[in-house]
Structure formats: structure tokens, C-alpha cells
Design a protein that fits this description.
binds coenzyme A; TIM Barrel; binds magnesium ion; alpha/beta; globular; single chain; two-stranded antiparallel ribbon
């Protein structure tokens, strides 16, 4: 998934608009964009939307962002939406693999109740929203076979840290949030999950978004969350491997295939060794994912 577009789960108009946005996934939100008074209504609107949208011929993947375990709202959220069979659950304020396992068990119970095959729904976890979570970023491996991706957030973390800001005057993340970003990236790689970059909230600033996407791709993220439909095209463009990158990856794979015993190979005057082969294979796997 290159682009994952957040949509407040209580807005039928935005939900409809999301279907034509070009996003690879929609994140139907029951959490931070919904006021406490509207949680129940948002659950109903989101479930109704899911039932309808699921059967569309060509559609984005549909995830619901539920409320975190500490809120006491998680069970009611899952009761309302699992029956409507989303493709997955976005699990916020995750504190390590143990919390993901708890979320998994809650989903498993509802799948059974609604006759959905076991482990059909995926999980994407938001791994850096509390201070405690930062220290658990390396614990996601093996926590749940549903877990497919990790992402990170700076807004809740800055509130918890008591910070005045999370970006500097130029819009660059400050040190505590760069750490959170790196921990998400390393935690995802350690657990063999997709690393998904956080939202860019300045949604009229296309150049700033593009730069942040390019920096994320450079570092190993393979997708980014969006908050506005206008951000989707930029995110998709940056996270779609270029023809040049694909050709380079194919050349590396072909060169190693031609010399199965080789540890290192020269192509066009540049050295390639095993880590390059691994990277090339990952890129080609991603290309197949986008095509599918
Ligand atoms: N998903 C789907 N449609 C959206 C959208 C979204 N995230 N954000 C905006 N739109 C729609 C608007 O409804 C509007 O539709 P219209 O042209 O039919 O009237 C159109 O896109 C243009 O929107 P615009 O006027 O530029 O923005 P806005 O002021 O209406 O909305 C936000 C700004 C930030 C409130 C809105 O983008 C939003 O709700 N984003 C998601 C917030 C969220 O889910 N946050 C939680 C995760 S951090
Ligand atoms: Mg949040």
C-alpha cells in the first residue's frame, strides 16, 4: 500500500469521495477525528459504508482505525465494524507486540462470531504514539500473523511528552520525532513489516509533501498516510518504483542468477553484493504488489 487516506468515519460525503481518490487504502477513522459525543454515530456510518463499499468492482483496501486499548472503546468499535468485514484494522497507540496480540484476540473472537474465516482481517499498528511505546518498537515480530505494517505518529507523542512543537520553523521534525520515525522504521524491518510514514498535515503544501515522501522512500518507508485527497497522487507517484529503478533491480537479480556462487558482482562499473540483491528483490516484490 503506497497511499493510505484518512477519512473521518462520521462523514458520508468524505467517505464517498474517498472511493474515487486513487488511494491504495482508506483509513476510516473512529479515533482522533471523531469527538467523544459522535463515536456511536461514526461506528454506524462507517459500518454502513463498509457494507456498501466492499462490493464495489474496483476499490481501495478498507481499514478502520479503532480507538486504542486504554480508551475502553475498542470492544464497541470492533463489535460495530468487524461484522461489516473491512480488510483490516488500524490499531493506534499500540504499546508493543503484546498489545497487538491482545488486539488480534479481540478480532479473532468477532471473526468467529460473524462467520469470517480466521485471520482474514489485517492489522496495521501505530507504533510511536506514547512514550512507553518507543521502548517497545522492537517487540512486534511474531505478535500476530495479521500484522502487516507499522506506522508512526508525532501528534499524540508530542502531547504526551508535553512538547510545545514537533516540527521546527522549516517544517522539519524535531529530535524526539526523528527518533520515533527511526524506531518505527527499524521495528518494521526487524519484524518484516511494511514501514509506512506518518501524515503531512500542511495539506495545501504540495512541495513540502513531495519532499517528505522522497525522504521517507530514501530511508526505507514504502508508503505514507494522507489526510486529504489532494495528497494521494503525490504519494502514489513517489512510492511507485520508477522504470529505471525496476530495470536496475532486474539487472542485479539477473546478474546474480547467472552466477549463483558469486558473493559480489560488477555491473556497469559498480559493485553489487548480497544486500543489494536483497534490496532488488524487495523492490520487485513491491512492483508485483502495486500491479496486483
Ligand atoms: N477524505 C475524503 N474527502 C475529503 C477529505 C478526506 N480526508 N478531506 C477533504 N475531503 C473533501 C472535502 O469534503 C471536499 O469535498 P467537496 O469538494 O465535495 O466539498 C474536498 O475534499 C476538498 O476539501 P477541502 O475544502 O480542501 O478541505 P476541507 O476544509 O473540507 O477539509 C480537513 C480539511 C483537514 C478537515 C479534511 O481534509 C479532513 O477531514 N481530513 C482527514 C482528517 C482525519 O481523518 N484525521 C485523522 C488522522 S490524522
Ligand atoms: Mg492520534
Amino acid at each position: 500500500m503506497r497511499s493510505l487516506l484518512f477519512i473521518p468515519g462520521d462523514s458520508p460525503k468524505k467517505l464517498d469521495k474517498g472511493m474515487g481518490s486513487g488511494a491504495d487504502a482508506l483509513l476510516l477513522d473512529l479515533e482522533d477525528s471523531i469527538s467523544p459525543q459522535r463515536k456511536a454515530e461514526a461506528r454506524g456510518i462507517t459500518a454502513a459504508f463498509l457494507k456498501e463499499a466492499r462490493s464495489a468492482k474496483s476499490r481501495p483496501r478498507l481499514f478502520v482505525r479503532i480507538n486504542g486499548l486504554a480508551t475502553g472503546l475498542t470492544d464497541d468499535d470492533l463489535d460495530a465494524v468487524v461484522a461489516a468485514h473491512p480488510d483490516g484494522i488500524m490499531f493506534p497507540k499500540a504499546e508493543g507486540g503484546a498489545a497487538v496480540s491482545r488486539c488480534d484476540a479481540k478480532i479473532t473472537a468477532r471473526e468467529a462470531m460473524h462467520g469470517i474465516p480466521d485471520s482474514t482481517l489485517d492489522i496495521v499498528a501505530i507504533a510511536t504514539e506514547t512514550a512507553a511505546a518507543l521502548f517497545l518498537a522492537g517487540t512486534y515480530g511474531g505478535s500476530s500473523k495479521r500484522l502487516k505494517g507499522l506506522t508512526w505518529g508525532a501528534e499524540d507523542l508530542s502531547a504526551e511528552l508535553g512538547a510545545e512543537a514537533n516540527r521546527d520553523a522549516q517544517g522539519n521534525f524535531l529530535a524526539p520525532y526523528q527518533l520515533a520515525r527511526s524506531l518505527c522504521l527499524a521495528g518494521a524491518a526487524a519484524a518484516q513489516l511494511q514501514a509506512i510514514d506518518t501524515v503531512y498535515v500542511d495539506f495545501r503544501n504540495e512541495a513540502g509533501l513531495r519532499r517528505e515522501c522522497e525522504e521517507a522512500r530514501r530511508d526505507g518507508f514504502t508508503g505514507k498516510m494522507a489526510i486529504h485527497p489532494a495528497q494521494v497522487a503525490v504519494i502514489n507517484a513517489v512510492f511507485t518504483p520508477t522504470a529505471e529503478a525496476i530495470a536496475r533491480a532486474e539487472a542485479v537479480v539477473a546478474a546474480f542468477a547467472a552466477e549463483p556462487g558469486a558473493g559480489t558482482i560488477g555491473i556497469g562499473g559498480v559493485m553489487y553484493d548480497r544486500p543489494h540483491l536483497e534490496r532488488a528483490k524487495q523492490l520487485l516484490a513491491r512492483v508485483r504488489g502495486v500491479a496486483a
